[in-house]
Specification:
- The structure is a single chain.
- The protein is α/β, with parallel strands linked by helices.
- The protein has two domains: 209 residues, Rossmann fold (3-Layer(aba) Sandwich), CATH 3.40.50; 198 residues, 3-Layer(aba) Sandwich (Rossmann fold), CATH 3.40.50.720.
- It has 14 helices and 13 strands.
- It has an eight-stranded mixed β-sheet, with helices on both faces. Strands 10-9-11-12-13 form a five-stranded parallel β-sheet, covered by helices on one side.
- Strand 5, helix 5 and strand 6 form a beta-alpha-beta unit.
- Helix 4 packs parallel to helix 5.
- It starts with a helix and ends with a strand.
Amino acid sequence: MSDVRDRLAALIDSKQATVGVIGLGYVGLPLARAFHEAGFKVIGFDVDPNKMTALNAGENYLKHLGEDYVKCLAGSDRFEPTTDFDRLGEPDALLICVPTPLGKHFEPDLSYVLDTTRAIAKTLRPGQIVTLESTTYPDTTRGEMLPILEAGGLKCGEDFFVAYSPEREDPGRKSHNTQTIPKLVGGIDPDSGELATALYKFAITEVIAVESAEVAEAAKLLENIYRAVNIALVNEMKVVLTKLGIDVWQVVDAAKTKPFGFQAFYPGPGLGGHCIPIDPFYLTWKAKEVGLPTRFIELAGEVNHAMPDFVIQRTVEALNGQGKAVKDAKVLVLGLAYKPDVDDVRESPSFELIERLAKLGADVVYNDPHVPETPAMRKYNLRMNSVEISPDQLKKYDCVLIATNHAAYDYAQIAEHAKLVVDTRGAMRDFDGDHIVRA
C-alpha cells in the first residue's frame, strides 16, 4: 500500500475527506445530500448559476423530492455549491453525475463526461479519487477517462484513484431513496475499488463491490436493457390485444398472480426518462465496435419508439368514430412528465404526441399539475403553459388524451364530462363507456 492511498483511506475513515459532487441534478443533488447527512464536507459543482441561487436560499428545484429537501444544506458550514470548476482540486473525492445523452444518430454522447474529466485533469493532485456515476458503455471509465486523467503524469492506483459506481435513481419512487438503493462499485484497480467502496459505505446503506469498473458499467446497462425489453414486450402485446378486443392491463394483472417466473411491466405511449429510452443504445453502439449485432435490443427499441405512432393512430380513429377529423379538433393532453407524480419531463413521449397532433392540424393544449410550462428540451421547445381543467373545461375538448396517469387527476370527473377519452395508461379501467378508448 502506498502512502498516498493510506492518507486518503484515513481521511475517508475519519470523515475528514471533502466530497465534490459534479452535476447537481436528479442524481447529484440527492447524492450530495446523502454525504452531507453522513457528516462529510461537500462541495457541489454545477454550471447552472440558478441552482446555486436556489440552494443557497434553501429552495429545492427538484420538486418530487419535497420543498424542504435542501433546507439542511442551506447555510451549512459543510456544504457549498459553486460554479467555479477551478476548485476541483479541493475535494478529496470527486463524484461525476453528468448527463450521457444520445446524439441525433443514436450514438453515445460522452461530451459532458469527457469535458468534466478534462476539467478535473487540470487540477488533479495526488490523493484524489474520481468516481463516475453516469450511465455509459463498458470501458468508458478505463478507456476514455483514464488516459485524460493520466496525461499530466500522475498514475492511477499510485497517485490518484478511479472507480465506476452507477446511479440507480428512480424519481418519484417512495419505497427507496439514494441512501437505501444498493450501490455497485467497481474500481480501475483493487485499491481504487476498495477506497470507493469505503467512501460510499458512509452514505449508502448497502455497497456491493464488483471486480472491475467494466462489470459495474455493464451491470447498469443490463438493468435498464432488461426493463426496455420487457416494456417492449408488453407494448407489443398491447397492440395485438387491442386488435383482438382484449384489455392488456387485465391480462398483465392476471399474469402477475403467478408467484414466480413473471414480473409485471406495463405499456404506455412510449418511453421516457433519461435511462430506458437511451441506455440500451450505449451497448448496441459498443457492440458494433467489436463487430457484433444486438438484434434483440434493437428490436425492443424499434417497438418502444413506435408506440407514439400507435397512440396517434388510435386517437385519429377514435375521433373519426365520433364524426370528427383530427384537423381542427381540440385535444387536451393530460400529463407532460414521463411518469406519474413527478415533474421530470426528460425524453417524455408527451412532447412527441403534442407535436405530432399539432402537425396533423389539431388544436392541442396540455395540463400537468407538476409541470406548469414546457421547458426547452434537446429536441423540443413547445413554449406552452399548462391549462386549467374543470368539468366545464373538459366538455370543450373533442378529445382528452391521457399520456401520464398522475394521481392528482379526477378520473371519475374525466369519464363523466369528456366527450372522448383516449387512455394510454390504463387510468380509466374502472370506467365504462363507448367514449373511452384504450391506446
